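Data card: per-record layout.
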Amino acid sequence: MTSIHDVAALAQVSIKTVSRVVNKAPNVSDELRERVQGAIEQLGYRPNQSARRLAGGRSFMIAFLYNNPAPGYVSRIQIGAAWRCRELGYHLVVEPISLGGEERFEVLERLVAALRPDGVLLVPPLSDDAGLLQRLVEMGLPCARIAGSEEGAGFNIHTPEHAAGRTMADHLVGLGHRRIGVITPPPTHRAALRRVEGFREGMTAAGLPEDAALFVEGRFDFASGVEAGEALLNRGDPPTAIFATNDEMALGVLTLAHRMGMRVPEELSVTGFDDTTASLTSWPPLTTMRQPLEDMGRTVIDALADGLQQTPPLQFTLIQRGSSGPAPGR
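The structure for this 330-residue chain is written out next.
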């Protein structure tokens, strides 16, 4: 097996320098880092993780904590994070955790006692759990968050939710829709609430009056999409389009529309948010707002591994597919 001594000999540096490069220590020149990295790749050297832990006081584990009923959203972030962990020599530990209550602290403390992770990754709604964030600060655990709405612990990826909501409103209004139902997120998902704010802004800009009865709260899962769709479509004056603030709920609306014998998009347009894998497997395929979920997962791992402080710019993209079309009669 290739050893650290072999790498040092090929790169013509000391063993200590190889160790510093492997452990991403600061104050190593770019020239030395490139030379050592080249030797590592040429020899196929794999650092001994146990030795790295002992030398650096690190576990090379990152904990991914979530409380989100939308599996497509969580899984794609997890995929990006897991691959980036593998590239950097880390392991990702995934743990569901409750929202509110003392139980979440007990789960966190058991996790830390058993694995001693080098950092924690949080996604909404945990990204805005003030109590959890404070406990992480008290424990001295580095934290990286996706879509945190307020300033708090650690690194935070800001997401353009408001602008994306406005874009979705412009899309449906541009198709001639004037009565548009909105399935809103749970109130704990503050980032997603900004999607609704942006959507309202777009409707106001188009001169459309706001009807509170057309805004129905969901739970970010398939079943609540069906329930909210029933509340909207069984009205005496139902909407001609429904914007669900995540794909899971939008797929619930699509299923309901088929069950009711409604043609999509001829009689009802349906749009979602996230661009999860399931949005391509529905019929018709779902018009949705694409988030770069896997890239977001990779970025938070980079933040934890390398101590990044700046939020990279993110682009959300409207993906128009077969579930949205011109308003009936247009």
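Known properties of this structure: The mean pLDDT is 89. The longest helix spans residues 71-88.

See the next section for split statistics.
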